[in-house]
Hints:
The structure holds two protein chains of two kinds. By secondary structure, chain A is α/β, with parallel strands linked by helices.
Amino acid sequence: MRQKLIIYLLTALLSVLPGFNFLLAQDNSVVVSNKPFTESYILAEIIIQLLENETDLKIEHRIIEGGTTSILHPAIVNGEIDIYPEYTGTAWQEVLKQEEMISDPIELYYKVAEEYQQRFDLTWLPLFGFNNTFTLAVKAELAQKENLKTFSDLALVSEKYIFGAEPDFFEREDGFDNLAKTYGFNFKSVKEMAIALKYPAILSGEVDVINSFSTDGLLRRYNLVILEDDKHFFPSYYCAPVIRTEIIEAHPEIIEAFKKIEGKISDATMTELNFLVDEKRMEPKEVARQFLESIEIL
Amino acid sequence: MDFVINVFQLMIERQELVVESLLQHIYVSLTAIALIAAVGIPVGILISQLPKLAPPVIFLTGFLYTIPVLALFGFMIPILGIGYKPTLFALFIYGLLPLVRNTYVGITEVDPFIIEAARGMGSTPTQILFWIQLPLALPVIIAGFRTVVVMTISVATIAAFIGAGGLGVLIFRGINSYYPELIVLGSLLVAMLALLTDGLLGILEKRLLARIKK
């Protein structure tokens, strides 16, 4: 009787064992992480599948749900993660704390890459190709009613409306304060909320204007309209993987792998990939795989 | 009704993720609970014997209890990094207060006449502590422990925030990708895990107390 019990217990234990993988030290694997939104999940999967296909490295995906730049940057500097997708504009302002505005996106990329190398021993790999900049979005009805096309149009009527954005947006150099100053926005009130709650909030009428990403697949789903940044307030946010230099020195084949997808993800492609996950409920892994197949990497 | 079916379908479709998250959740909660018990109960006993220490220690655990967890993560990254360590630390400082306080209260609330009687019969303070005070305080200590267990399992959801996985992964991911079914699935599993564990502890408690009474 007791023997049987032990056998049952052992079998049960063995069957769940793969789930305990996370307990084992995985020292020699490359740890990929990402920011907590759809686009970044997809990019992480693209990075993972590309590396698995093009190199012999062991890859681990470390999911950090609170992983905004303020958490991921210290983590990569400490060597707890090895690679994650970052945006040039974010790195320039939030990490490097630079105030000078650089309007040429390529110049910005090189300057950021140089500073990262010198200060943190981190390397910027080739750009994915798309520019996911900030923009402002309103409901289509509102855009029609007030005839809104540009940020300046919105400034004329802003005192009637409520603005909503995530806490980050009120902290950044290219965030709310300077934006409001540049355009003379004077909103009726301003609300802070988690990124993911902005869409429900604008749908239910809690807020009227939200900040948004230009490649966001949900703009389409919720029938929102993007306004034009007619004074070019927001810098460019081209995206590329940031990796610890130590790792590419040991494995230069990683650079070759990323050269294969350099510039392959346009704004439209990224919006489409985001849409597939957010609206079509596809897994980021699956979306990444289809994309890599479409450009004949897999 | 459709929604409920969707949640169950999701559980089956994402089996791998669900099992891994559940195991991570159990692992991080259990180790945190063990650590809390290993420190909380001795500290509670200690301050019951050294009454001067009691107010500052209880104040300190109370103070730790009030620190918002996100703030804690924010300034601990340079020291503890991300992942398992900061999560364990956070759960530990949140679980300390209920257990230290219950242990302390349980012991100090034992009827002074019983202690007087024991002393009269020649018991040493150590004997009084281990043979009178602790057994009589046990129901209160266990009540505190059960609170800690349920609370820790539920708070362990924040492990996901800092990269230690667990069922919070399902919840955060549900929030971040506008997927209500995923949020409900994660929450249900956390609730079930907490209630099951609590029920199990209830049964153990009854047996243990019945044994002591004999």
